[in-house]
C-alpha cells in the first residue's frame, strides 16, 4: 500500500462554503477513483499554531499499491478537483510513501 499526504495553503482564508465544497469533492474520491483503500480530509484544527505555516486543508489517501497512486493523478475526478483550486491555491506539499501493514 501507499500513503499519499497533501497539505494545502490558500492565497487567503476560504469562506466556509468553499471549505465544504472542497471537502465534499475530496471525500467523493473514494467512491469514484479506483484503488483507494482509505481517505480522510479535513480543515487544520491543530493547536500548534506556530507550525501551521498557512496550511489549512489536509488530505490522506491510502492506495492499494503504487500503480493505483500513479493512476490517481491523471484521473478525471482528481483533475476536476485540481481545477477547483485555480486562483485560490498558494502552495501544496505532497508526501508519498510505501506502507507495510
UniProtKB/TrEMBL annotation:
<protein>
    <submittedName>
        <fullName>Dabb family protein</fullName>
    </submittedName>
</protein>
<dbReference type="InterPro" id="IPR013097">
    <property type="entry name" value="Dabb"/>
</dbReference>
<dbReference type="InterPro" id="IPR011008">
    <property type="entry name" value="Dimeric_a/b-barrel"/>
</dbReference>
<comment type="subunit">
    <text>Homodimer.</text>
</comment>
<dbReference type="Pfam" id="PF07876">
    <property type="entry name" value="Dabb"/>
</dbReference>
<dbReference type="InterPro" id="IPR044662">
    <property type="entry name" value="HS1/DABB1-like"/>
</dbReference>
<feature type="domain" description="Stress-response A/B barrel">
    <location>
        <begin position="2"/>
        <end position="97"/>
    </location>
</feature>
